[in-house]
Structures are given as structure tokens and as C-alpha cells.
């Protein structure tokens, strides 16, 4: 590199105004470092919560605390990140906390998961939902920084949304495992069975949700013309050991028998990756979005 030559790299920034708060997402090359430094005479005193985004399937661990950064722009700080960075800006008066607040590892993990979740669900956000989502976000941050019974109660909606997402992630990881039970999920996610059922009540409860996810997986396999396993084998792989009961549940759920779905798939009339086989049914993604949106009190387009 010649003396005085400037190094450049491509980056994009998307910004969403949600009432009094702003969510910014910066996408840059993972080979370049993004660095924010404290300005000696800042013009604003906003709170900034930033997190390095990770894949939705990754499990939460102690690295969550290292990838989450919380500060006030008036306080000395340096923030480094590579790749995608999610940053939340809030006015100073929204959170009554010290300029350099301490945050526990568990709270950091929760907040990191929530910001990632918020970003991933912005495409489903209606204008009418903006105020309530902004309020939920402020309540979440306040409850994690200065926990109290009142603040935790106010933050119930965003906390439930994170619990729903973590539970869905745990289900995805063990969908075919017979050990996947409500009790296992309660221990894995760290939540009571009554709260887990309440969160998944829109899907008929946690057991019904797991059953439907397994039915969806068998439907995908049946529609795959390269899958040579028998219908009984496909069903058994997902824990359905009684072929007659499985067939009745499948037809009640999708309006077609397993044999009919297999025939359509093998004839090339049905793609295994297509979630839409029934009017009003939109597969895993919409089912998951419904649960998260319900937890946040959001309405989504069908």
C-alpha cells in the first residue's frame, strides 16, 4: 500500500425509526473491523446497545456477553465488531441507570437474543405495532438493567418472545429425538411448564406445537421424490409409531393423506421445499412468527 492511500471496503446500513428509539443494522465484510469510539464532546447522550449478529440456529453461550456492548454516548467507550452489527439507540431519559451499568451474563444473553429477534421480525412489523414494540423494547432493557418485580412484569411480552424463540431453537435441534418433551424444554430453556404452555397457547400448547412440527417434517419428506423410505418409516422417524393414528392426524392437519402427498411429490406436482399445500397453511416460518408476534402483541398479515 502506498503512503497516504486510504483503505476502503463496502458496507450497508439500514435504519428503522421505532417511536423514540432507532434500530440500525450495519453489514460489512467480516474481514474488516468496525470500531466506534467515544467522542470527547458528544452532541447527544443516547444509550447504545450493540450486538454482533449470529445465525438464528446458534445456541446461546457465554460468548453472548462478549458480543453485546452497552454504553451511553457521554461515557468513554470503544466498540469493535466484524460483519453484521445490530445497534439500538435510546434517549437517555428512557432508562434510569448509571452511565456505565453492569449487566449479568444471563441478562446480556437475553438482550442479545432479543435484539437479534427484533431485527429478524421487522419485516412483519405493521405501522400500528411500532409504538407497542418500542415500549416493549424499553421495558426489556429496564428490566434487565434494574430488575424488579414491577419492571419484569412490564417486560413480560419481550421476555416471552425470547423464550418462544429459544424454545423453537431447542425443538429444531431435537425434533426427531424421543427425548424431546415439554419437561425437557422446561429444563433446557429454564422456564416453568405453565409459562411455556401459555406462550405456546396460540398453537394449542407446547405438545401440540411439537406434534405439528413433526407432521410438517414428515410432509416435507413425503413430498421429496428422492426419499425412498416407506411412509411408515418416515412417520416412525418422527415418533409416529402407529400408522393409522399418524395417517388420521396428517389428513386432519393438511387435508390430504400421506399417500396423496407422496403421490403428488413423486409426480413432480409438489415440491418438498414448498410450505403451501393447503389454503391458510404457511408452514414452519409463519407458525414460528405467529408465536413470536403473539408474545409481543403484534398482528401479522396472513
Structural write-up:
- The protein is α+β, with helices and mostly antiparallel strands and 302 residues long.
- The protein is 45% helix and 15% strand.
- The protein has a five-stranded antiparallel β-sheet with strand order 1-2-7-4-5. Strands 3-6 form a two-stranded antiparallel ribbon.
- Helix 2 runs antiparallel to helix 3 (130-145), helix 2 packs across helix 5 and helix 5 (156-173) runs antiparallel to helix 12 (283-296).
- It is globular and about 70 Å long.
- It starts with 10 loop residues before the first strand and ends in a 6-residue tail after the last helix.
In one word, what is the shape? globular
Quaternary organisation of the protein chains: single chain
Estimated share of beta-strand residues? 5-15%
Put simply, the count of helices is 12
Provide the gyration radius in Å. Answer: 23 Å
Q: How many β-strands, per DSSP?
A: 7
Mean pLDDT: 82
| Class from helix and strand fractions | alpha+beta
Helix content: 40-55%
Biggest β-sheet, characterized? 5 strands, antiparallel
Spatial order of the strands forming the largest sheet: 1-2-7-4-5
Provide a brief overview of the structure.
With 302 residues, the protein is an alpha+beta fold. The protein has helices at 63-67, 105-120, 130-145, 149-154, 156-173, 182-189, 193-199, 206-223, 231-237, 243-254, 258-266, 283-296, and strands spanning 11-18, 21-28, 33-37, 47-52, 68-72, 78-82, 84-90.
Amino acid at each position: 500500500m502506498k503512503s497516504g492511500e486510504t483503505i476502503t471496503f463496502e458496507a450497508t446500513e439500514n435504519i428503522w425509526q421505532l417511536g423514540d428509539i432507532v434500530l440500525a443494522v450495519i453489514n460489512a465484510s467480516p474481514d474488516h473491523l468496525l470500531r466506534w469510539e467515544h467522542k470527547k464532546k458528544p452532541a447527544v447522550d443516547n444509550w447504545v446497545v450493540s450486538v454482533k449478529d449470529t445465525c438464528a440456529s446458534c445456541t446461546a453461550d457465554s460468548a453472548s456477553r462478549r458480543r453485546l456492548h452497552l454504553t451511553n454516548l457521554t461515557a468513554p467507550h470503544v466498540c469493535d465488531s466484524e460483519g453484521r452489527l445490530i445497534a439500538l439507540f435510546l434517549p437517555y431519559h428512557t432508562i434510569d441507570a448509571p452511565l456505565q451499568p453492569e449487566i449479568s451474563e444471563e441478562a446480556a444473553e437475553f438482550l442479545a437474543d432479543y435484539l437479534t429477534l427484533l431485527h429478524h421480525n421487522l419485516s412483519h412489523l405493521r405501522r400500528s405495532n411500532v409504538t407497542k414494540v418500542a415500549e416493549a423494547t424499553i421495558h426489556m432493557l429496564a428490566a434487565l438493567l434494574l430488575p424488579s418485580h414491577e419492571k419484569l412484569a412490564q417486560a413480560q411480552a419481550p421476555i416471552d418472545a425470547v423464550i418462544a424463540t429459544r424454545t423453537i431453537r431447542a425443538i429444531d435441534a431435537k425434533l426427531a429425538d424421543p427425548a424431546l418433551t415439554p419437561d425437557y424444554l422446561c429444563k433446557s430453556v429454564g422456564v416453568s411448564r405453565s409459562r411455556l404452555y401459555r406462550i405456546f397457547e396460540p398453537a394449542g400448547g407446547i405438545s401440540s406445537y411439537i406434534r405439528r412440527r413433526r407432521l410438517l417434517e414428515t410432509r416435507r419428506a413425503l413430498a421429496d421424490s428422492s426419499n425412498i423410505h416407506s411412509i411408515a418409516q418416515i412417520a416412525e422417524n418422527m415418533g409416529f409409531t402407529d400408522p393409522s393414528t399418524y395417517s388420521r392426524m396428517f389428513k386432519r392437519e393438511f387435508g390430504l393423506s400421506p399417500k396423496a402427498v407422496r403421490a403428488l411429490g413423486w409426480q413432480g406436482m409438489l415440491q418438498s421445499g414448498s410450505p403451501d399445500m393447503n389454503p391458510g397453511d404457511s408452514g414452519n416460518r409463519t407458525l414460528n412468527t405467529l408465536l413470536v408476534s403473539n408474545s409481543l402483541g403484534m398482528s401479522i398479515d396472513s
